Amino acid sequence: MTAVDIRVKSLAAEALSIGDLSARTSVSPRSLRYYEEQGLLTPGRTPAGHRRFDAEAVDRVLLVQRLFAAGLTSAEIRPVLPALLGAQGYDASPLVALRTHRQRLAHEIARLSDTAEILDEVIEEHERL
To answer: Could you report the average pLDDT of every consecutive run of 10 residues in the chain (129 residues)?
Structure first.
C-alpha cells in the first residue's frame, strides 16, 4: 500500500454516508434529503453521485432538529444557521430572528392562556347547571 492509498482511505473514513449520518443523529435519510433541498445541509458527492457528509454535519443536523422543535421553519433557520454554528464572517445579528420568534411564542402562549381561562369559565358555569 502506498502513502497515497492511505490518504485516500483516511479521507473516505471521515466522510459519512447519508445512512451513517442518519444513524448518528437519529434523523431519517428522507429528512436529511429535505434539509439538503432547503439549503440547511450541503453534502459532497462521490464520483458515483452518492452524498458524503463531513463530521460537522452531525452537529449541524442536531441543531436543525432543535430549531425545528422550537417551532422555526426551514426558511427561518437557513439565515441564522451559519451564525449559530460559529461560521466566520457572521455576527450575532441573525439572533434577532430567534428573539423575534421567541416573542411571537410568548404572545401566542398568553393568547392561548386567555382562551383556556375563558373555556374553564364556560365549563364551570355549565357544570353547575
So the answer is: 42 79 96 97 92 94 95 92 79 81 95 97 90
Q: Are residues 22 and 81 in the same domain?
A: yes
Render the burial of 63-88: b for 16+ CB within 10 Å, e for the rest: bbeebbeeebebebbeebbebbeeee
Single pTM value for the model = 0.76
Residue 101, exposed/middle/buried by CB under 10 A (0-12, 13-18, 19+)? middle
What is the count of structural domains for the chain?
2
Question: What is the predicted pLDDT for the residue at 95?
Answer: 82
CATH number of the domain at 55, please: 1.10.1660.10
For residue 32, the tally of other CB atoms under 10 A from its CB is 23
Q: Both 19 and 72 in a single domain?
A: yes
Contacts of 100 (CB under 8 A, 6+ apart): none
